[in-house]
Sequence to fold (529 residues):
Amino acid sequence: MKVNDEIRIKPVDNERPVGFADRLGAYYTATVSQTFKKDNGQFFTPQEIAQFMGSLASTDKKEINILDPGCGTAILTCALVENIVNRNPTIETVHLTAYETDCHLISLSEKALSYLKEWLSHKGVTLQYVVCVHDFILENYDCLNSSGLNFSDRKQTFDFIISNPPYFKLSKDDSRVKAAKMIINGQPNIYALFLAIATRMLKNDAEMIFIVPRSFTSGRYFNRFRDYFFRYAQLNFIHLFDSRKDTFSRDNVLQETLILKAKKKTNPEDESEITVSTCIGLHDIAKSKRKSYFQKDLIDLKSKEKMIHLPINTNEESVIDLFKSWNGSLNRYGIQISTGPVVAFRAKDYIREIENGAVFLAPLYWLHNVTKMEVHYPLHKPDKGQYIQICDHTKSCLIPNRNYIFLRRFSSKDDKSRLIAAPYFSSPDSPYCIGVENKLNYIYRPKGHLERAEVMGIAALLNSNIFDTYFRTFNGNVNVSATELRAMPMPPLETIKEIGKALILRNNFSLANVREVTDSFFELNEITI
Fold:
């Protein structure tokens, strides 16, 4: 960053602090590489989102304490303070604690906060602030431990915590992972640690306002985090973006994000409402649509998973109600789902592109072999050999050649459907075992075989509009985890078989036909999904 350039970045006449902070962020974004921002999880909050987040806060206090744990150019703090000052004529003093560890950003943080202080002084409000250059997680992780000591006796607590924390996965040997191990299961994303710590730094009547990825709303890796978060925080507002393309367009990010507001939980039995707000993107965020739900309609806090369902229209509400009416599940029907055991880089010495009479080979199925209702095999692609050698070295990662449903574990961000499944049927002339690569899930009956009608019925349901719609209400990423599928409600097994039989009788497995059959069974013809 050139010093002369930095000097030229000055507020213009009558500029609001949030506008100045936004210009500072735009300047910084243009001076660093996309790789640097990605490696550091930096996604700068657009002014429209900052103002929306700031508008969620209100208070009648004369003196408030604010925490911004990853402040950047302090645009969120500026938006929050502007909103409070405009709404509360009695406000006199604002205390701010901000964290920023990027040495290139700190001088810009200081510029923004210095201007905010000057702007407030003209309104008779005092701003006292400190910018901490320490790692927020390592500085405050001790508050995660539930001990006999009251955390507020040891460290400062806040009236408002507002943040757009960094988003990136932490390696297992990262010191922050070790510090926050009680909320971690698998490979964690750093933003979850920011959220968890923030829940313990709130005063009793305080609020936290965050913009984060949707991925925490479901999935095994966030189970411990959700359990911890809902132990200490009461969620009362969520905002969803229908389009992910312009949320962080300045940083070329296609991240599916949400804005949440939560308060410190003081009554475990509180059955408060949650407001769900929606907009398409930045252009209509100020005119967002809102609807309130009882907490129990979106989150079952008594369940093990505590997944968060987030409907954005009446169609999705109807689908959620339909699923709640079902008592079945794969486990209840003696059906299991597992991840393909062939890890390609570990088995590369035994994967073959073509058949070879000198060795015994089994078919190997990859993600690209599976599309909706169809397995394409063989389908040759570079470095995606369609066979795997049957030998002592591979026997632990091969499975019996039976009837299965193959389900992609990952979907592209551009895929119209999250759930992509296909029926697989064994045949007498096939090898006694097959290989399933690690990016596929396979559904099977451990004790016995799946009937043909069961295979067709389950595959059809997974490819249906109603299942894809339901899945999207709680899954905010491209992963399709076996854990989530095991927990998904299913219709009665006889209904599943009837769906399969209907498709077999038609002998037409096109998506249009699949959706027509499934919709007719559940009387959703009137609903446009």
